[in-house]
Structures are given as structure tokens and as C-alpha cells.
Amino acid sequence: MATWVWIVIAIGALLVLGLVGFGMMRGREKAQRREKAQELRQEAQTRLEQAEERERVAREQQQQARDTRKVAAEVGARADQLDPDREMPDDDE
Question: Which residues form the domain of 64?
């Protein structure tokens, strides 16, 4: 065979090897990006769960505050009834 044929074959082989290498790099990059996306999804899920837990705790605390406010109002009303110095509104008006 002529020398130029060997040169063409060598160039073709190098091109094929280059394309295969490029394809492998792209595949590796895709796998890394896929893995990073999965990590971000897990982090987002964790943060979502934490936020939901905090919201639940906040709702519970809000309900406790309402209950405490109600008890305080009841105790205040009872104190008003018992206090001899407290002026009671006249019923005749």
C-alpha cells in the first residue's frame, strides 16, 4: 500500500479515538451533572421537610398563645368579678 493510504488510515483512527474520548468525557460530565442534580434535589427535600416542621411548630405555638390569651382573659374577668373596688356597670341604664 501507498504511504498516503497509511496516513489516511492513521488520521481516521485518530479521529475515531478522539470522538470516542470526547463521547466518554461528555458521558462522564452528564453523569456528574445528574449526580449533582440528585444531591440538590435531596437538599431541597430536606429543606422542605425542615420548613414544614417549623411551620407545624409555629402553628402549635400560635395555638398555645391563643389558649393562654383565653385563659388570661377568663382569669381577668374572674378577678374583675371578685374585686370589690371595681365599678360594675349599672343595669338600670
Answer: 54-80
